[in-house]
Amino acid sequence: MNFFSPPNQLTFLRILLTPVFLVLLLSSHSVLRQWSLAVFIFAAITDWYDGWLARRWGYVTRWGAFFDPLADKILTSAALLAYASLGLVSGWMVWIIVIRDIIITVLRSYAEYKGKPVDTSKLAKTKTFAQYVLIYYLLLFYVAQNTPSIEERFSGLIQALLNYSFIYIAMLLITGITLWTGIIYIFDNWKTIRELYESSNTFAKSE
After folding, report:
1. For residue 75, what are the contacts with CB-CB under 8 A and spacing of at least 6?
2. How far is residue 150's CA from residue 142's CA, in Å, rounded to a whole number?
3. Between 140 and 191, whose confidence is greater?
4. How far from the centroid of its chain's Cα atoms is residue 171's Cα?
5. How many other C-beta atoms are found inside a 10 Å radius of the C-beta of residue 131?
6. What per-residue confidence (pLDDT) applies to 6?
7. Distance of alpha carbon 200 from alpha carbon 176, whole angstroms
8. Measured between alpha carbons, how far is 9 from 4 in angstroms, rounded to an integer?
9. What is the architecture of the domain spanning 6-206?
């Protein structure tokens, strides 16, 4: 197992890029906000590329299986929390999504690390896709809204696309699906979760 393999390095790069993305997005300067979009896209590309490298060159490791999905959730959770602070989405929905995603991701990652992978439902995959679509959607049009040259030409269109009611309903649907898939995940994998908990307790007592 190579902890410092290229895919793992890309995973940790994605984690390091998260605070950079936040600083740029929350900046009061339009140019820095534009850079936040570039940083987020680059971080997302590293997610695809490290997975491809791991499969193509046999760099699949337990550390990678643990940290890769965790890095993804750190990035997406940071984006949603930033949107809440900017008033683009409701904070209570974001917290439900973030808490659920972190809990389930840690459980999944730990199960992968222990060699007991658990299944991800099609609905959960749909949820993840919908989250990413909304995150990119909001980021793209928020940056456009805060870029003077674009906002002056397309202000009406941007305002329509950032309609609060539309975003609220979309977030409400995603929040509901996120919460529901989390509950289903725990029930469907309860036996594995219990085994992991018991094995970790046994290991702790043996120390």
Report:
1. 14, 15, 17, 18, 21, 40, 43, 44
2. 11
3. 140
4. 15
5. 22
6. 76
7. 32
8. 6
9. Up-down Bundle (1.20)
Q: Tell me the whole-structure pTM to 2 decimals.
A: 0.84
Is the alpha carbon torsion for 146, 152, 154, 156 positive or negative? positive
Round to whole Å and give the CA distance between 170 and 196.
Answer: 35
pLDDT in tens, 63-108: 666 777 888 889 999 999 999 999 999 999 999 999 999 888 888 8
Q: How far is CA 134 from CA 47, 126, 140, 160, 169, in A?
A: 18, 12, 10, 15, 12
d(CA 70, CA 102): 8
Taking all residues of the chain, what is their mean pLDDT, rounded to a whole number?
Answer: 85
Map out the domains of the chain as residue ranges: 6-206
